[in-house]
Specification:
heterodimer; A: mainly alpha; disordered N terminus; disordered C terminus; B: mainly alpha; Histone, subunit A; 4 helices; 2 strands
Chain lengths: 113, 137
């Protein structure tokens, strides 16, 4: 859900005008960042904003590549196997290989912290 | 199947869904599409791991520069390092726009504060005069 308040409207426009106010809640992003490792303690005010937008671009990139797999199979429903195929086929997504080789719901997240 | 990651640490499902559907509308404007909920979960988890990966890389860069606080420059360098350099330009533009809007907001806020202080002073003076008038009158 969009967070109303301080940040709503600040990033309206952005890269694609259609997206309107920034999408991903900054507090949540900060929480995830701090779980990246014990060393990540201090984050400047602008960093979560960059992360929020980077995340959006990343999801779009992964979506596009996954959709290409769906289309090649002449289907209209994008499923998780398409995402896995896209990850395996793209060097850029090597860091996700462990995620897709297990079921997302059973993933052991401690590997990544 | 048990979820390993708590909901508080996940990215909001509705937002991930919106980003995915927006992209699919661009990719296939003339055709119907559908996204399985497991695929949405996969996108959400992938994005979370992306944040971890990018954070850890940016943090290393920050430490190498002997600083304690990770900043936007560290993140841009990290993106180059993990081969997502095509993100740097649009992110730079987005950040510049945010700073511009935020600067405007800060100026407005300080103007509002000054106005409020002036009004308060005016109110206090009027109140004092009224009280003095009552005492002498």
């Amino acid at each position: 859900m969009r967070q109303a308040g301080t940040y709503s409207g600040i990033l309206s426009g952005g890269i694609s005008g259609k997206t309107g106010p920034h999408l991903l809640p900054l507090a949540r992003i900060k929480k995830i960042m701090k779980k990246s490792g014990e060393a990540v303690k201090m984050i400047s005010g602008e960093s979560p904003i960059v992360f929020s937008k980077a995340c959006e671009l990343f999801i779009k990139e992964l979506t596009q590549r996954s959709w290409m797999v769906t289309m090649q199979s002449k289907r209209r429903t994008l499923n998780k196997e398409d995402v896995a195929s896209a990850v395996m086929a793209t060097d850029l997504f090597d860091f996700l290989v462990n995620l897709v080789s297990e079921s997302p719901l059973e993933m052991d997240t401690s590997k990544y912290s | 199947m048990e979820k390993v990651v708590s909901e508080a640490e996940e990215l909001p499902k509705a937002i991930v869904r919106r980003v995915v559907k927006e992209k699919l509308s661009e990719c296939s404007p003339d055709y119907d599409f559908n996204v399985h909920k497991d695929a949405l979960l996969a996108f959400s988890e992938s994005a979370r791991i992306f944040i971890h990966y990018l954070s850890a890389t940016a943090n290393n860069i920050c430490k190498e520069s002997k600083r304690q606080t990770m900043n936007a420059e560290d993140v841009f360098k990290a993106l180059e390092e993990i081969e997502f350099s095509e993100f740097v330009k649009p992110l730079g533009a987005s950040l510049a726009e945010f700073k511009k809007k935020n600067a405007g907001k800060k100026v407005d806020q300080s103007r509002k504060m000054r106005r409020k202080r002036r009004e308060n002073r005016g109110f206090i003076c009027r109140k004092r005069n009224q009280n003095q008038a009552k005492e002498t009158g």
